[in-house]
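I am writing to request your help with a piece of structural work I have in hand. I set the record out below, with my sincere thanks for your time.
___
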Amino acid sequence: MENRKTLSTRVVIAGGGPAGMMCGFLLARAGIDTVVLEKHKDFFRDFRGDTVHPATLNAIYELGLFDAFRKVPHQELRDIAAEIEGVPYPVGDFRHLPGHAQFIAIMPQWDFLNFLAEKAKALPHFRLLMEAKAVDLLASGDRVTGLVAETPDGPLDIAADLVIGADGRHSTIREKAGFKPLERGVPIDVLWLKLPRQESDPEAALGRVSAGLLFVMIDRGTYWQCAFVVPKNGFEAIKAQGIEKFRARLKTAAGFAANRIDAIASFDDVSLLTVAVDRLPQWARPGLLCIGDAAHAMSPVGGIGINLAIQDAIAAANLLWQPLLRGKPTLGDLNRVQARREFAVKVTQGLQVAIQNRIIAPTLASTAPVKPPFVLKLLKAFPILRTIPAYMVGIGVRPEHIHAPDRANR
């Protein structure tokens, strides 16, 4: 029988998304040998979250990478607005936020991940394995001692002092660890699609609301990335009604872009995001820690899931680099990450669920014209108040700062 290939490292991270790449970069920068696994051969995946929020941009500034980041093609979003039954309402203004970035960067996630990967691969303690999918855990007694990865060259056993599961809401690491998330009921799903953009179009991200319809448009330079919100499990019924009826609904929702709906030639141009909101009661066991969506799947409300995942990664690096230098982190060390991050997750999920249940679901079920909430009238009348929703979206609860040191080249 052919010997299985093996690899040994201090930390192995399953998942090369924003949380996995940021955590791997920070740990390697702090002098910890780190391997990150990405199951695909590249980062190119359409309709992934493409927003990099001010809290994350502030961390990039603290790493000394802000100027290099801004050279990567992107758009800078400084306002968010809603249009209710054709009447515009300003919602958020990022220009007065604290820190070094008063905008949300709209950047394809593959460009953001390539940016992080390029910076990380320059570090002597970092290694990125593409087309390497974590499929199982290695353990000795109750302690996780590594993982098994599928690679083009066959199975690879990776021994590590710490396994970090950053492999998303369908996490294999979470499943193999025996972790079961607490589910929150979610009344919606989201259909992602693209519409052409014209020079005369507005620049702000726009949520368009009318009876039975909620449509979000995000400026991507040459096109609009659009989210069409539907009732939970409603996509099959939409497909059964046919593409022409769906395009007619889009024309009603899209406002100034209604004349471009023919760009949606078939349902092949539409991607379904099945919305889930859940949270692990316990993020860790000896030798293993889950972060990001593997620990807490977020709703797309506010587009803040990526930001929360990156904040987890920063907190994990801040809290674990010293225990890792000393040896194997204890379960108590790992639990400190959950203790640090769980409050922010609970508050954010609570707000998302409240918005879904009290605003979005009733709007989708409504047949009467939608009346603007009183808070939108306040935001329109008093511009300074727009900083509040901008702060909640852009900075959020308990933003993290870089404390793990740069020891890579010492």
Summary: Residues 188-231+233-273 form one domain. The longest helix spans residues 331-365. Residues 93 and 190 are 25 Å apart (CA to CA). The chain has two domains: 5-76+106-181+277-356, 188-231+233-273.
